Amino acid sequence: MNMNTEIRNTWIIATLVALVAGGFLLVCRAQKPTDNIVRLKEKVESCKMLTVVQDEAGYGIEVPDFFQEVPTDERATMRFRHIDPQTGVQLGMVAYLEFCPGCTVDGELEALAQDLQERGYGKMFSVEKGEEYFFVESPMFPPSNPAAGHVDCEKTYIYGELGVAISLHFYYPPAYRSAVDRIIASVKAWEPYEE
Q: Phi/psi of residue 154, each to 5°?
């Protein structure tokens, strides 16, 4: 065996060892989707919920401390978002006041159900209502593209005598529902104005 053959064989073996070691490291570092869900759940469970008050309208919402505020020019509106840097998973919250003279809880629920149906988004899969509010969970995107879809968790208060509605929306990917239970519970318990 000559010197060139030995160098070439050594180089091939070293390259193969490096490729195998690199592949092993990549496999070991790769996270399963369930790992990402568990990681997000731990983040949600351990975070502080901050109360943020909308200056113009005076209503408040609770937002996880790891969410970032998203600037908006919309009146009486607040937007917050979290994008996981490792997975790209997005969570968001939007709260706004809108004028709706004559609107009612039943009327708004009926309009929402009709809108979802007309757009092909499917049906609401969780509905609770009270005298002046409703809470709904529904798909945000049509079922023809479920990979892109998020769930919209919405609570809306209707103040008929004032002709306004104040809504809080929280959106999340359906696979991450168990990770965001605490935020959903916060939305369900939300009241725009402290008693």
A: -125, 135
d(CA 81, CA 70): 7
Q: Say how many domains are in the chain.
A: 1
Place of tokens 């990549």: 26
27 occurs within a structural domain: no
Q: What CA–CA distance (Å, rounded) separates 78 from 95?
A: 5
72 is a domain residue:
yes
Does 37 fall in a domain? no
Amino acid at 81: R
What is the model's pTM?
A: 0.78
Identity of the residue numbered 165:
A
Domain that holds residue 155: 48-189
Q: pLDDT tens string for the chain (195 positions)?
A: 555 556 555 555 545 444 445 544 444 445 566 789 999 999 999 999 999 999 999 999 999 999 999 999 999 999 999 999 888 889 999 999 999 999 999 999 888 888 877 877 777 778 899 999 999 988 876 555 444 578 889 999 999 888 899 999 999 998 999 999 999 999 999 999 976
Total count of residues recorded for the chain: 195
- CATH code, 175: 3.40.1000.10
